[in-house]
Amino acid sequence: MSTFVLVHGGWHGGWCWQKVTPFLEAAGHEVYAPTLTGLAERAAELSPDIGLDTHIQDVVGLLQEKNLHGVILVGQSYGGMIITSVDDTLQ
């Protein structure tokens, strides 16, 4: 099966995928839906230094930490900018 990394939009968190995740997992897929630095339950980490580059690194770091390859990146709204850059970073 496939591995999905679901990246939320601005001012959301990984929780926004909670209705989708069970369906993907029930179909046998592995799913990761991280919350980006400084957003949602990680809001305490927000600082002027947090931006697009930080969020790209969040996803790249997850891929490296979990040793994930050939994943399906899904981005909602702002998450689309992140996954495009993650893909460019990994190429």
Describe this structure in words.
- The chain is α/β, with parallel strands linked by helices and 91 residues long.
- The chain has a single domain, classed as Alpha/Beta hydrolase fold, catalytic domain (Rossmann fold, 3-Layer(aba) Sandwich), CATH 3.40.50.1820.
- The chain contains 3 helices and 3 strands, in the order βαβαβα.
- It has a 3-stranded parallel β-sheet with strand order 2-1-3.
- Helix 1 links the parallel strand 1 and strand 2.
- The longest helix is centred in the middle third of the chain and has 14 residues.
- It is globular and about 40 Å long.
- The protein starts with a strand and ends with a helix.
- The model has no long low-confidence stretch (mean pLDDT 96).
The total of beta strands comes to: 3
Structural class: alpha/beta
This entry's quaternary arrangement is single chain
Report the total helices. Answer: 3
Q: H/E series, N to C? A: EHEHEH
User: Helical residue percent?
Assistant: 25-40%
Unreliable residue runs: none
Spatial strand sequence of the major β-sheet: 2-1-3
Mean pLDDT: 96
Strand residue content = 5-15%
| CATH C-level name | Alpha Beta
